[in-house]
Amino acid sequence: QCYITNVIKQSNVAKDQENLAGVSKRQQARDWADIFQWELDHVKPAHVFCVGGSAFTYVQMLQREGILRRFAIHEIVHYSARNSTQKIIDGIVSGVQAVLGKS
Fold first, then answer.
1. CA 19/CA 77 separation, integer angstroms
2. If you ran DSSP here, which 8-state letter would residue 11 be given?
3. Residues 6 or more apart in contact with residue 63 via CB below 8 angstroms
């Protein structure tokens, strides 16, 4: 029922990705949008969770531009967030639980 995405479906070296200009990152999201939409069409999730603020922003952009169909999205903590492993796990779990209505 849940689909978790970072939107850009390619393997990147994190340090190199961080150094890319915003316009390049937005274009990467556009380049992969058809595959992302195909996955959503086949999986038909009830909930789509975006891993981190950038992924959330990119999905909003793709929807606004009409590249992705409209569906509800939810932002959760990115697994590489700069914090303790337990705090990251707790952030992800609490973000998902908040949407699913569980405690």
1. 21
2. -
3. 69, 70, 71
